[in-house]
Each structure stands twice: as C-alpha cells, then as structure tokens.
User: What shape does this take?
Amino acid sequence: MNHIPFNIPPYLGTEDKYIKQAIANRKICGDGEFTKKCNAKLEELTGAEKVLMTTSGTSALEMTSLLCNIQPGDEVIMPSYTFVSTANAFVLRGATIVFVDVRPDTMNIDEKLIEEAITDKTKAIVPVHYAGVGCEMDTICDIAKRHRIAVVEDAAQGVMGFYKGRALGSIGDFGCYSFHETKNYSMGEGGAVLVNREKDVDRAEVIREKGTNRSRFFRGQVDKYTWVDVGSSYLQSELNCAYLYGQIEDPHIINDDRLRSWNRYYERLAPLKDKGAIELPFIPEECTHNAHMFYIKTKDLEERTKLTAFLKEDGISAVFHYIPLHSSPAGVKFGRFSGEDKYTTKESERLLRLPMYYGLTESDIDIVVDRINRFYQ
Assistant: This one.
C-alpha cells in the first residue's frame, strides 16, 4: 500500500543552523535578530509599511480587530467559507458577523454581494484569499473607501500570492499571514500582521506588546515604558522566527517546488476535467497564486465521500475543508447570512483537497492521479 500524507511541514535544512544561532545570541523571547530579519524580509516581499511577527495567524487577526476599534454591536462582513479564526477574532470584540456568499470559481467572497450586506453598523470587510488566490481587491477596496470602512485581508494562505502584482495582505488596511505547519512557510505556530498605513504602525506595536510602548523605549524614543493602550502578548518567540527565516530567506525554493507540483496535478487531471467528471481550480488572470493547495470538485457530497474512501484504501490522504461557519452553532449565535446561500454550502460539499507539500514527488502525484482516474473509470 502507498502512504501519501495530505501534508508534511516544510523543512529545508537551514532551520537548524539559525535556531542554534538564536540560542547562542542569548535572546529567545522575541524581537531579537531573527524576528527583525523576518519582519524586514516580509516587508521587502510585500511592500507593506510594517510587518510584525505574531504568535499565530489567529492572533494577527485579533490584533487587527483591536486596530479597527471593533466594539460590541459592530458588524463585520466576511465569507462563511473560512476558518473559525476569521470570525472569532471579531466576535471576541462583540461584533456580529455578516456572512456573504462565495464565488463558485475561486471560493472567494463574491465582491458583487458585499455592498448589499453593508449597514450603518458595518466596520470592516474581511476578504479571505482562499488557496492563495486573490479576491477581487480593487472592487472591495473601492466599496470600503466609499463607505469608510476598513479592509482586513485574511491572507493566512496567501504568502507569495499576488493580485495585479501586489502582494496579498498588502492591499487593504491590514493583512494577516499564518505560518502554521500546514502553510507554505512554517514555524509550527506563528503569523504576522501587515500594517499598510503609516498612521497605524505605532499603535500596532503597542497592541502587540501588551498595550505598552516598550518598542519605543528600546528605540530610545521614551526614557521608560508604560501601559498606554489595550493589547496582549502577541510577540513571537525568537526560536520560531529563526526556524521560519531559514525558509523565507529565499522564498522561491519552496514556492517553485509547490508550483511544479500544482502544475503537474493540473496537467494530469485536465483530461478528467475535459470529460466533465471533475472541476479544477480557477486562477483569475489578474492573480498569481502560490500553490497553497490543489483541490478538485466532484459532482456532489456523495461522490466526494466515495472518492475520499477510495483514495484512503490506497494510503492516500485527501481531505475536505471548512464546514461553512454560518451553519455551525456558533455561526448561528454570532452571525447571520446576507442574501442567499447559493454556492457556499453546495460548493464546499464538492471540494476535495489532494496531498500538497514541499518535496512532494512527481511519482507520488502520478499515483494520486492514477487512483483518481481509476475511480472515475
């Protein structure tokens, strides 16, 4: 029997060297050499005004809810087809989540439906760049500007993804990255906030440092630091950043490898697509994706369940993704769906993610594809 897992965390070999260096530096609590190197590298890659490493993608989102001054009774618009952290970060501040249907081609929020979901209580729009494929950001930012509401990009899956040449996460007011072990670049648990407006940088540093002006103190801008605002402990460990830096120092090593795997899947599964047996991912012309995942869409939930079991019999781990949040108990309690759920539930029940990770071999991809072909034969 084969054994092809769904995910293996990325590892290049340079991570060990940098972790040892961080230990030798005798500073491991964060904001040391490697935290600063990660911040600077991500600023270089994205063009963001400021990047701040955080303990997770979840904590990055929580920071943005504070930066947006979300208060009880406010409303935040987002797709229902996303991870729970996207909603939780704003629910923790007392917001009501307003879910909007997705586009069936990209599984991203349908930008054409956002404006009708806006009320006088709306404070933010949170587009989620599913699978590292950018949302229609020009339209979303235009809507937000006209209604004077914030845009927070959930780019947890979007590192090295671009929309019209601009890095995902760098387009709205704020962006959030994740470096969980399932992501393209990993430090086990970790994330980053992209602050895209200069006026928000100081407050972002304060919130990240438990509500203190500690960052300004270490730069010599104040002679002592104190509690000045709300905040929490969002500062990432120096050891985690050392691990991550080994991967983002040259991000093309992982990115190019994943793109090769993604392209091989697409080319080998194209005949099944042409026969109408499955659907394959769609990449809009204005988007450059990062091969975060490769998925197929089956006819329906029943067919997906059978295919998943068929692959598992041969040691191949393929998995579905999110249960739409609006259909969950907490989603019903803390949110509402705007308009019709035309695609979110139906398309989520068809989607099946195939094994995808750095170092996935061509022979393993061929095994997965051959097994899928056998199922449909």
